[in-house]
Write a structure and sequence with these properties.
The chain is an all-alpha fold. Helices cover 73% and strands 0% of the residues.
């Protein structure tokens, strides 16, 4: 199960990276097309949807690898048992919050499908299609937060803490800049 979940988070991160690359390709193509006098209005709509997809698909991967912003000033000053309790409390709050985000994203996407909401931009597309990345990314993030909660509940160190410590041990402080 651990290997499956880690591959799932890596796949989400890879999918987020693919959307970032597609944004780059579209932006360069748009610049070239403008120079050639070709209209490019709908590209802006697609790029905005791809930005959202890149962010939401990559969230679980970023969370698991310690790339989310965490304020650890208090955690660094307390004893390990207190730190574990604070981590559990934070992950419990995060689980509830992410669960609400997930529920809202799914409901929002479903309502767009149910009411046949169409994009108002130059590309008339059913809105539920680009909103799927919001719902799917939220589900993936919920799984990641619950996964961390269970790891810490069972007495393990949070993955995001362990991976950051491993990077620091190798002399890699790039994520701290």
């Amino acid at each position: 199960m651990r290997r499956f979940l880690d591959r799932l988070y890596d796949a989400g991160g890879a999918l987020g990276a693919v959307f970032v690359a597609l944004i780059c390709v579209l932006m360069i193509a748009q610049s070239v097309m403008r120079e050639l006098g070709i209209r490019t209005g709908a590209v802006n709509d697609v790029v905005s949807w791809f930005c959202a997809a890149a962010a939401f698909f990559a969230m679980a991967h970023a969370f698991k690898h310690g790339d989310f912003v965490r304020v650890t000033l208090l955690l660094e000053k307390v004893s390990p048992p207190v730190r574990r309790k604070l981590e559990l409390a934070s992950l419990a709050i995060g689980s509830v919050s992410t669960g609400y985000l997930c529920w809202s994203a799914i409901k929002f996407t479903y309502e767009s499908w149910e009411f046949n909401d169409i994009a108002q931009g130059l590309l008339p597309m059913p809105m539920w299609i680009p909103q799927l990345s919001f719902a799917m990314g939220s589900i993936l993030l919920l799984v990641a937060v619950l996964d961390e909660f269970i790891i810490v509940l069972r007495g393990g160190a949070p993955t995001f803490v362990r991976l950051v410590e491993e990077r620091h041990a190798r002399g890699d402080f790039s994520s701290d800049v």
